[in-house]
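It is time I had a proper look at our fold encoding. Can you supply me with one protein entry, sequence and fold together? It will help me judge whether the discrete encoding reads sensibly. Leave the record below and I will have a look:
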Amino acid sequence: MTTPPARRSWIARLLRGLGALVLLLALALALRAAYAFRDRSPGYSVRIAIDGAAARAEPRPLRAGFAREKINPDLGDPARPVYLAGFSQNRRATAIHDDLQAIAWVVDDGHTRVGCVALDAIGLFHDDVVAIRRRLAPELGLTYAIVATTHNHSTPDLMGLWGPHPLRSGVDPAYREQVLATSARVLAAAVAALQPARLAVHEIPVAPEGLVADTRPPLVYDNDLRALHFTAADGGRSLGTVVSWGNHPETPWSRSTEITSDFCGFLRTALEEGLVEGGEVLVPGVGGIACFINGAVGGLMTTHPSVTVRDPLTDRLLRTPSHEKSRAVGRQLAARLLPRLRRPAEAAVAYAPLAVHARTVELPVDNPNFLLAPVLGLMDRGHSRWGHVRSEIAALRLGEAVLLCVPGEVYPEIVNGGVENLPGADFPGALAEVPPWRELLPGRVKFVLGLANDEVGYIIPRTQWDRKPPHVRGTAKPEYGEVNSLGPETAPLLHAAVRELAAAPGIADR
């Protein structure tokens, strides 16, 4: 049987119409991808190389300034829910338990001025950091500005991954604008607060037991406390403290819908006001403004529901996720820090030459989810070129302290040693991330500041990358981590950059 001419003509028109529709859809998708991956900061690049030689040749008194401002979202409009970041989609904020803060500190050695703002937030992309820097007036005199986030999982979505459902962003543009504007404003306020200061640098060993768990082998932690304590040059009054420790702020866990600064806020309050129970100050605080910046949290460092935390004031054992458990973590850290900070400042110095080395890095994006998310409108992050994102890494030396700014959640084994090469991994062979970063870095106290100037996700040792079966530990599914990483080349590329920075003039031992 032959098909009648009229029917053949109808089928041909239908096929041509479908072909045209497919072509239009493909064109629309291509245009959407081009727009989504456009470079948000064309030509932007950072290349700072200050060796501190001028400050050493002509020492000038150190100055420091601190400032803070709240960054709470507005929960008053039911038509505009606030989606909390972390854990899962559609987790809507119901109340504010305690304030979220943007805390800035600025240090000036008389030749170079560096500022840092630490945000109670899940993370900011490098494009957002650039946007903040562009709001900073030249009159502020900032040689370099660092933007870090605590990676708090009880804060509004600022990355787009935790909206009402997997295909809709959870970012409120008005709240994003609030955070960016506040960050620039609080940095300016810290500059205005600059005054002569002395600096003491502290490192306090802390065992992870009863505080933090590592949920992916090898069991390596970033568990020691490190602190910069700035006091007034004319009498020892505390201006502010910068503390770093490696742990995800997700202590209230996934069922909590209240906004909170988690243990970071409880730690800051305890350092400033003291350890208080029942209205009685049991251990006095040091005053000033306290700032928390996270450390190496990949792997995954967390006060997991399986971890029992003891409140050092009440002696209560807290295992169930709660705000009380968060407070206990903050108190545990403060109980270790306060005795050291309250000692006479005989170790404090009035001169601390600053060396600053920072540079742009390009990182390849091998994660298909991270390529799809911008096209779907979930992640508002541009590409410096196709399949690559612009990021940044930096090292600062301030007296006997070295601060390494890392753009994501680095696995502690890269920082402290213990990278493994196990049969079954996707990329067996020579270890790429050796020696560990703290072995490479000079200085007496070596800070590794995570989620600084970007959030690229997990930074996983290449030889531990394990997406393809058979899996290294005999599991049916791959371990968590790779799904939230740019790809297996991120760690080797950053390791090479850290090696270069560690040997840079002024960073390396003088």
Observations:
- The CA atoms of residues 244 and 294 lie 5 Å apart.
- The chain is about 25% helix and 25% strand.
- The longest strand covers residues 354-364.
